[in-house]
């Protein structure tokens, strides 16, 4: 199909955002900015609307690369969260988030939340976040997780014993073979 009107035709080939940024252009589109920072276009758009990221719009949104870098430095990160002037999750002091604890122990996040709610793992509530100390993580690992592993090992060995005793019992195929003779 042929394009009659030149204004309605557009080039489908978009340049790679990284190469266009390297060529010296200081402005990128929302899509290019999202690809550069591994976020969604919606995240970039929301940052513009909240005035956290400077951008201008003539025909489409254009973002200056300097502003984009400034936004990246200042954007929200949970690891930089402060509570009463102190870092919320200061790993050097041994304070970890629920997600970090779950990753360290190799268990689901919901299990850590359940352990903190029931009191099997002690954690401090700072604002909306749970902060768990490294000594508490070790205590939980030694007291609860090691028992669970031992229990699963015992149950696994019982299953093997049960299956070996049940196989020595009468077999339906053998009984039917006896009846035919």
TrEMBL record:
Name used for this protein in its record: DNA binding, excisionase family domain protein
Ranges for region Disordered: 156-181
Biased composition (Polar residues): 160-174
Residues in Helix-turn-helix domain copies: 27-75, 96-142
Family membership noted in the UniProt record: Belongs to the EUO family.
Annotated source species: Chlamydia ibidis 10-1398/6
Superkingdom of the source species: Bacteria
